[in-house]
Target: DUF423 domain-containing protein
Amino acid sequence: MYKNLTIGAAFGMLAVVLGAFGAHALKKILTLEALNSFETAVRYQIYHAIVLLFVASFKGFSPKQSRSLTLLFSLGVVLFSGSIYAIYLLGIPAKNIWFITPLGGMVLVVAWLVMLAIFFKNREKK
Model:
């Protein structure tokens, strides 16, 4: 449980740091469109950091379900937000990694679907 909480807290802290960096340092460098993309990455990261904290603390998930959800949400954030950060912070051309961002988005959708399926399955048990 604490490992999963740590991942959520780390993602949250990093989102705040990157959001502040984007708001102050990058706004002078990036176009408005690029800054909006960067802010989307930060927003998705912070939303899913909160979800990870929920997953780690919700008693309705089995340990295996919690681990699976943590893995899916974490992978989705790393692929989705991480690919956007790579483009704007590391200067990796978007044309070289264009497929990673939507792949990360799809992993996040799958994570939400898995969570939904768990809730429906648990609802039927009661």
Notes: The helical segments are 2-24, 32-57, 63-89, 94-97, 100-125. The mean pLDDT is 95. The radius of gyration is 16 Å. The chain has one domain: 2-125.
